[in-house]
Design brief:
The structure holds two protein chains of two kinds.
Chain A lengths: L5 H9 L12 E6 L9 H16 L3 E6 L6 H12 L2 E6 L5 H10 L4 E5 L8 E6 L1 H15 L4 E6 L4 H17 L4 E6 L6 H13 L4 E4 L5 H9 L2 E6 L10 E7 L2 H13 L6 E4 L6 E3 L7 H16 L9 E2 L5 E3 L7 H5 L8 E2 L3
Parallel strand pairs in A: 1-2, 1-3, 3-4, 4-5, 5-11, 6-7, 6-8, 7-15, 8-9, 9-10
Antiparallel strand pairs in A: 10-12, 13-14
Helix pairs in contact in A: 2-9, 3-4, 5-6, 5-10, 7-8
Chain B lengths: L1 E6 L5 H25 L4 H10 L5 H26 L7 H12 L1 H5 L6 H29 L3 H21 L32 H19 L1 H11 L1 H6 L4 H28 L10 H11 L4 H25 L4 H22 E6 L7
Antiparallel strand pairs in B: 1-2
Helix pairs in contact in B: 1-2, 1-14, 2-13, 3-8, 3-9, 3-11, 3-12, 3-13, 4-6, 4-7, 4-11, 4-12, 6-7, 6-11, 8-9, 8-13, 12-13, 13-14
The chains are: A alpha/beta, B mainly alpha.
C-alpha cells in the first residue's frame, strides 16, 4: 500500500528532494541530542565532544546541534533537516535514533552518518560506542567494599543489551570482592527524567541499598544519595559537584577524540563506514578521581583500572553463572563479543527479571 | 484614570473573528521582544519561526504531517467542548486506538490485503471509542466528573502500551529494545510520492468538513449547540443530556483513536513506548484556537504545526533552546483566552477613581 500514490505525486515532489547544499567550504557537522546539554550526564559529554571538535578543527568546521529530540517520528524529521541544511557529517547520539538514521541515510547518500550505540550500519552509516562496562566493573568493586548492607541499587533506562551488560559487569566486579553481593534494579523507561530517576533512587534506598548507581542521564539519583547519606557513582560525566560527599567516582565518557578523528577523515576524504567499540585503552572511557573512600579501596580501584586499560583484566572472564545457575562462561574463558553485544540475560545475584 | 472591563450588551461579532488574529499579533510582538532580550535578531527569528516553514515543499510536508493528528483530534474535541462535555483524555484514546489497530500488523502479519489496512483504521476508532466509553458511563450512571476520569485513563493506557511493547508484543529480534516489529508494507498508510505526507491528512480534512456540515446543518449539530449553550432549554426541547455525553465521548474518542492508528501506520511504522508527543493535549489548544469550529480547527492545527517546525528551525539556525517553542505555544493560548474576554466585555477608561475602590 505504501507506494499507492507513487507515480501521481512523484512529479510534484521531485523538486523538493535532495537540495542539500554545502555551505561555502566549511564542513557542517550536526549533532542530535536526546536530552539537553545541561543534563550534566550523557548529552553533556557529547556536547563536550562537539566543543572539543569545534576548538580543534577551528574554522574548517561549523557545528550545530538539536537538543531534546524524542526517539519518535520527530527524530527522522530532525535528522533530515540537518542533512538538508548542508550538514556533511551527522552524529545521532542515542540508541532510539537507529532506524531514523538509516532511513535518512538512504535519502542522502552523500552525507556521512554516525550513530551511537546501535547495531545497524550502511555505506554511509557508521556505529560507535564505548565499553562503559569496563568502568562498571571498577565501580562494582568499590561498591562491594563500601556497602554495609551488601546490596546496591541500579537505576536502569531500557533493558537493551548495552544496559544489561553494564548491570552484569557491575555485579561481577562487586562479587569479585564479596561473592554474596546483591543488586536491585529499577527501570525508569527513560534516558533522561530527573524526577523519575530520583524517585527510583528513593525506592532503592528504602529497600536497603546503600550504594546507588545508574544508567540514566540526569544528576537526580546522586543528589538523592547525597541527601539520604548513601554512596553513589556518577554516570557519563563527572557529577562530583552535585554530590560532593556521596559520590565515590564517576565513569566519564570521552567522545571528543573520536569526533575529531572522524571529522578529520571526512575532510580528508578517507571516511569509511565501520564500527568502533572503544574502552579505557582507547581513552573513550575514563574514571574520575576516587574520593570519599579509604586509601586501600582507592588503591584497589586504581589497580583494576590499570589492569583493564592494559588488557590484563577482562570484566567478563569466567566462570560466570547466569541467574538460573547455568554456566555462561567457563573458568578462564572470556565472553565472546557477539554474546556481549546481544546480552539479554542476568548474571547470578541480580534481584530482577528481564 | 482607571481601566475597567464592562460587559457588552451583546457579544461582539467583530471581536469573535478578530480575537484569534489579535492573539497571534500579540504573540508575535511579545515573541519578538523575547528574541531581542535573548540577543537574537527579532525579525530574522520570527521569520524562521513563522514564515520559513511554509517557504519550501519539504517543510510544508512536515507541517502537514504534524498537523494531521492535531486536526483529527481537534475536530472531535471541538464538538465535545461545544456541548460542554469535557474530554481531557484524548491522549489516552489516541494510544488505545494505536494499540487496537496494531493488533492486525503485529499478530496477523500475514494478512496482506488492502482490506487489512481498512480494518486497522476501523479498529483504531473502536479502540479510542471503547476507552472513551469508560468516562462516559461513569458520568452518566454515577455522575463522576469526566475531566478527572478521562485524564486518569491516559496514564493507565500508556502503561498498557509500555507493557505490551516490553512484553508480549516485543520484536523478538529487537535486542530487547521496547518496540514491536516494523509493520509490513500492506499495513502502512500510502504516502504521496516519496515524502512523508500520508493518506491520514486527507482523512482528517474530510472528517473536519463532515463535522462542519453536521454542526451547521443538521439537527444533531443544533442539539449540540443548544445543550452546550443552555442545558435546560435543551431538556425542554426533549434533548437528552446523557445521550449527548455518550455521543461526544464516542465521537471524540473514536477520532482520537483514529489519529493514533494513523500516526502509527502513517509515520512511525511500529509500536514503541512513545507514539505521540502529547498530540492529545495539544489538540485541546487547537480546538480552542479554532473557536470550536471544525473549519477553524484545520487552520489552528496548521498554525500549531508551523510553530513546532519553526521552533525546530530556530533551534538549529540560531542555536536557541527548544523551550522557546513551548513558550510560544503557551503565549498563544494565553493571548487567545485573554482576547476572548473582549467578545463579551469591552475595555473602558474611567477618569478619576469614579467614586469606587
Amino acid at each position: 500500500m505504501r507506494k499507492f500514490f507513487g507515480v501521481a505525486a512523484a512529479v510534484l515532489m521531485a523538486s523538493a528532494v535532495s537540495v542539500s547544499v554545502m555551505a561555502d567550504d566549511k564542513l557542517k557537522v550536526g549533532f542530535i541530542y536526546i536530552g539537553p546539554p545541561g543534563d550534566h550526564g550523557w548529552t553533556y559529554q557529547h556536547d563536550q565532544g562537539r566543543i572539543a571538535l569545534a576548538e580543534s578543527l577551528g574554522d574548517k568546521v561549523e557545528t550545530v546541534y538539536v537538543e531534546n529530540v524524542p526517539e519518535s517520528q520527530d527524530a527522522e524529521r530532525t535528522i533530515t533537516r540537518l542533512a538538508r541544511q548542508g550538514a556533511g557529517l551527522i552524529f545521532t547520539t542515542s540508541f532510539g535514533y537507529m532506524e531514523p538514521t538509516i532511513k535518512v541515510a538512504e535519502k542522502f547518500p552523500e552525507v556521512k552518518f554516525e550513530h551511537a550505540t546501535g547495531y545497524m550500519q550502511a555505506d554511509n552509516v557508521s556505529t560507535y560506542s564505548a565499553r562503559f562496562y569496563e568502568g562498571r566493573y571498577v565501580i562494582g568493586q568499590i561498591a562491594a567494599k563500601m556497602s554495609k548492607t551488601g546490596t546496591a541499587g541500579y537505576i536502569g533506562s531500557f533493558p537493551i543489551p548495552e544496559v544489561v551488560r553494564g548491570i552484569n559487569s557491575f555485579l561481577l566486579g562487586a562479587q569479585s570482592v564479596n561473592p554474596d553481593f546483591k543488586l536491585k534494579v529499577v527501570w525508569v523507561n527513560s534516558w533522561f527524567d530527573p524526577g523519575k530517576e530520583a524517585d527510583a533512587a528513593k525506592v532503592l534506598i528504602s529497600q536497603g541499598a546503600d550504594v546507588i548507581t545508574q544508567h540514566t542521564d540526569s544528576t537526580g539519583p546522586v543528589q538523592v544519595a547525597e541527601e539520604q547519606g548513601v554512596y553513589a557513582f556518577g554516570q557519563a560525566s563527572d557529577m562530583s559537584a552535585f554530590a560532593p560527599k556521596a559520590l565515590l567516582t564517576s565513569i566519564v565518557n570521552n567522545w571528543g577524540d573520536y569526533y575529531i578523528e572522524r571529522t578529520q577523515a571526512v575532510l580528508d576524504g578517507t571516511w569509511e563506514s565501520g564500527d568502533t567499540f572503544g574502552g579505557m585503552s582507547a581513552n573513550m572511557v575514563n574514571m574520575a578521581d576516587f574520593v570519599n573512600m579509604p586509601a586501600d579501596v582507592a588503591a584497589m580501584a586504581e589497580e583494576t583500572t590499570a589492569a583493564i586499560t592494559s588488557g590484563d583484566l577482562h570484566p567478563f572472564t569466567g566462570p560466570i553463572y547466569k541467574q538460573d545457575g547455568s554456566l555462561a562462561v567457563g573458568a578462564g574463558e572470556v565472553l565472546d563479543i557477539g554474546t556481549m553485544l546481544g546480552m539479554n540475560w542476568y548474571v547470578k545475584g541480580v534481584d530482577d527479571q528481564l | 484614570m482607571r481601566l475597567i472591563l464592562e460587559k457588552r450588551p451583546q457579544a461582539s461579532r467583530l471581536m469573535y473573528f478578530s480575537s484569534p488574529l489579535l492573539a497571534i499579533v500579540l504573540t508575535v510582538i511579545v515573541g519578538g521582544l523575547i528574541f531581542a532580550a535573548m540577543g537574537q535578531p527579532p525579525l530574522r527569528a520570527l521569520y524562521l519561526y513563522f514564515i520559513d516553514p511554509i517557504t519550501n515543499l519539504w517543510s510544508i510536508e512536515e507541517v502537514l504531517v504534524k498537523a494531521t493528528p492535531l486536526i483529527l483530534i481537534g475536530v472531535g474535541l471541538a464538538v465535545t467542548f461545544r456541548a460542554n462535555v469535557w474530554n481531557i483524555g484524548a491522549e489516552g484514546q489516541l494510544t488505545a486506538g494505536a494499540l487496537m489497530g496494531s493488533i492486525i500488523p503485529i499478530l496477523f502479519t500475514s494478512w496482506q490485503s488492502p482490506l487489512a489496512l481498512f480494518c486497522m483504521l476501523v479498529m483504531g476508532m473502536i479502540g479510542g471509542a471503547l476507552l472513551a466509553a469508560i468516562p462516559a458511563l461513569l458520568k452518566v450512571r454515577f455522575g463522576v466528573n469526566e475531566i478527572l476520569t478521562s485524564l486518569m485513563l491516559v496514564y493507565i493506557v500508556h502503561l498498557l502500551l509500555d507493557w505490551l511493547v516490553r512484553g508480549p508484543w516485543k520484536d523478538p529480534f529487537g535486542y530487547n529494545f521496547p518496540k514491536s516489529i516494523g509493520f509490513d508494507d500492506w499495513h502502512l498508510l500510502p504516502t504521496f510520492g516519496d515524502g512523508r505526507v500520508h493518506l491520514g491528512l486527507v482523512i482528517a480534512i474530510i472528517i473536519a468538513l463532515i463535522l462542519y456540515w453536521v454542526m451547521a446543518r443538521t439537527i444533531k449539530g443544533f442539539e449540540v449547540r443548544v445543550i452546550g449553550a443552555a442545558p435546560r432549554a435543551g431538556a425542554f426541547a426533549g434533548f437528552s443530556q446523557a445521550k449527548m455525553v455518550w455521543f461526544c465521548f464516542l465521537l471524540s474518542g473514536g477520532l482520537a483513536g483514529l489519529a493514533g492508528i494513523i500516526e502509527v501506520a502513517g509515520t512511525i511504522g511500529q509500536l514503541q513506548p512513545n507514539i505521540s508527543p502529547s498530540y492529545g493535549f495539544t489538540a485541546i489548544i487547537v480546538a480552542f484556537l479554532g473557536r470550536l469550529n471544525p473549519i477553524g480547527v484545520i487552520f489552528a492545527g496548521l498554525l500549531l504545526a508551523v510553530s513546532y517546525i519553526g521552533g525546530e528551525g530556530v533551534q538549529i539556525e540560531l542555536g536557541m533552546s527548544d523551550k522557546t517553542t513551548q513558550v510560544f505555544q503557551g503565549m498563544l493560548l494565553f493571548f487567545i483566552l485573554m482576547c476572548d474576554t473582549l467578545i463579551h466585555y469591552r475595555l473602558r477608561f474611567l477618569k478619576g477613581n469614579g467614586g469606587q475602590l
